[in-house]
Write a structure and sequence with these properties.
RNA-binding
RNA sequence: UGGGAGAUCGUUCAACGGUAGGACAGCAGACUCUGACUCUGCUUAUCGGGGUUCGAAUCCCUGUCUCCCAGCCA
């Protein structure tokens, strides 16, 4: 045991907190398995936008490479042109970069290797390990067998090498219609692993590819492609998610049959998060059906959505580092993500006063028409972030929730007879209220103590509460977009997305008020609206109209007390 | 049902035959010009049953439960 941290051992690969993949790499480096090299890759298919689940994989792959002085490639797995688009390629490049990772000059595409893959397919045909099959998709399915029964061999399985070579060449040349033939691996129709029952390597598909256009009429399947791409790039550790465990024997079969460099496939559990969905298919549905405004809707778990919401790459990286890597298949609680964004923003975001749901306060004994400027700190713990001036006058707005005509137990904000502090300003005491015909309070009348200017009374008098405010005359009106989780707390497990959506996932406050100092703030500037939450300036903001997104609420002890 | 993988506080990750620990969440308190932050303390776990061992979360056997697989998707 260490002696009270006297000679603290520096963190080494052996002593730092680890995970099973890191352990494998450490072990491999010890045995010299890959010559001490660490080369990983992040291989998305460009068929949608990246989400937080991908962030876990990105941080893992790039993080491991960085830690061990290795490299990590960005490679697009673009073997199915019917689903892939340049729009997705661009967004993925942008998102990985935003997350803070650099693939240097190693941006690759599976489609870069189409010709090589084709040549290797010919090699497998020549080795008697691949054949052209004329069965239809339906027939292939019917002959695949079941969990308990072996499949039956294709009648085309034993064609001669010459015939196979000719047919395969003609598949490429366009002699046959889509779906009429495939190139299959000759492995084992009786294997308990379905992936080994003569898997399809190539299909005939007349679809325009986002990079190769109409050059190809046949496209390689994932299983045939992935290991070889890894091999070409010299990947040492090919990290993927759990559902590919069953594919590993096939991955190995291809690189071994071809006699090329064999990377090691390692599977880990994909990220699951409560209160949101991380399936590309469902996210696409949300976009298509208009439940959200787009892939970058701030409620979306996509990197572009979460970025617009105000999450930072630093927070996301910290989150990914904290969730660990295993094969357990668990679900992370959303509050852990919120914890990390609060932690990051608490350290960096400038404080500002904004009233999201305003109610008018009139200081009866404050001179009409008078304005003064009060000093406010931009950050309570960071004097280097400076001070700013906040205008004060007779008519103010405070948060509606900060006033109660009849205070509940333990409520110590403003109510008739109660004295509170206006942050950085004065002590005020509520003396009366004005109501409209519905009995709703429209004005709260107070008196202030001029001696308490700046926020403290010379007589040492204490107040229980400090509330935030803006001057009605000086405040900017802005639109506050208040977000909650996309899905209901106890969302029913079903494919019907509509029934799972949280109806209050977005609440727009069009008449929110904010101190004038924020005027002109650039999009994506982060603020803490004191006592309310962390917000950032939305892309929709213009010079005339400020729009802010609530990134995350501040922790709210009062809300818990009030609930009891 | 055949194959593959997994099971440790509420959640998640660690402990790699030698004191079950951290983070988040929760609870209680201190501090506070943010009911924020910070700080202090507390609650709670080795899936069941056998074995091996001086000693088992860890090794062995057995049972149970959960996840993945029968695309010409990735």
């Amino acid at each position: 045991m260490s002696t009270e941290g006297l000679n603290e051992t520096p963190a080494t690969p052996e002593t730092a907190p680890s995970n099973f993949i890191r352990d494998i790499i450490i072990q491999d480096n010890k045995t010299g398995k890959h010559g001490g090299r660490v080369h990983t890759r992040f291989p998305p298919e460009p068929n949608g936008y990246l989400h937080i689940g991908h962030a876990k994989s990105i941080c893992l792959n790039f993080g491991l490479a960085k830690e061990f002085g290795g490299k990590c490639n960005l490679r697009f797995d673009d073997t199915n042109p019917s689903k892939e688009e340049t729009e997705y390629v661009d967004s993925i490049i942008n998102d990985v970069r935003w997350l803070g990772f650099d693939w240097e000059d190693r941006l690759f595409y599976a489609s870069d290797y189409f010709e090589q893959l084709y040549q290797w397919a010919i090699q497998l045909i020549k080795q008697g390990q691949a054949y052209v099959c004329d069965l239809t998709a339906e027939q292939v399915r019917e002959t695949r067998g079941t969990t308990t029964e072996p499949g039956t061999e294709s009648p085309y399985r034993n064609r001669s090498v010459e015939v196979n070579l000719d047919l395969f060449q003609r598949m490429r040349a366009g002699d046959f219609p889509d779906g009429s033939r495939t190139l299959r691996s000759k492995i084992d129709m009786a294997s308990p692993n379905f992936n080994m029952r003569d898997p399809v390597m190539y299909r005939i598909l007349r679809a325009e590819h986002h990079r190769t256009g109409n050059d190809w009429l046949i496209y390689p399947m994932y299983d045939y492609t992935h290991g070889e791409c890894d091999s070409i790039e010299g990947i040492t550790h090919s990290i993927c998610t759990l559902e590919f465990e069953d594919h590993r024997p096939l991955y190995d079969w291809y690189v071994e049959s071809l006699g090329i460099h064999r990377p090691q496939q390692i599977e880990f559990d994909r990220l699951n998060l409560t209160n949101t969905m991380l399936s590309k298919r469902k996210l696409l549905l949300l976009v298509q059906k208009g439940y959200v405004s787009g892939w970058d809707d701030p409620r979306m778990p996509t990197l572009s959505g979460i970025r617009r919401r105000g999450y930072t790459p630093e927070a996301l990286r910290a989150f990914c580092g904290s969730i660990g890597v295993s094969k357990t298949n668990g679900t992370i609680e959303f509050p852990l993500l919120e914890h990390h964004i609060r932690e990051d923003l608490n350290a960096r975001a400038a404080r500002v006063m904004a009233v999201v749901d305003p109610i008018k306060v009139i200081i009866d004994n404050y001179p009409d028409g008078q304005t003064e400027e009060l000093e406010a700190a931009n950050h309570p713990d960071k004097p280097e972030m400076g001070m700013r001036k906040v205008p004060f006058s007779k008519v103010l707005y405070i948060e509606r929730d900060d006033f109660r005509e009849v205070p509940p137990p333990k409520y110590y904000r403003l109510f008739p007879g109660q004295e509170v502090r206006l942050r950085y300003a004065y002590f005020i005491k509520c003396v009366s209220v004005v109501k409209d015909s519905n009995g709703e309070v429209t004005e709260v009348h107070c008196t202030y103590d001029p001696a308490s200017r700046g926020g403290n009374s010379p007589d040492g008098r204490k107040v229980k509460s400090t509330i935030h405010w803006v001057s009605a005359e000086h405040a900017l009106t802005f639109e506050a977009r208040l977000y909650e989780s996309l899905l209901l707390e106890d969302a029913p497990q079903s494919d019907d997305i509509a029934t799972q959506l949280n109806p209050t996932s977005l609440v727009v406050k069009a008449n929110a008020k904010i101190e004038p100092s924020v005027k002109g703030a650039a999009p994506n500037t982060h603020f803490q609206f004191e006592r309310v939450g962390y917000f950032n300036v939305d892309l929709d903001s213009t010079d005339e109209k400020l729009v802010c997104n609530r990134t995350v609420q501040l922790k709210d002890t009062w809300a818990k007390i009030a609930k009891k």
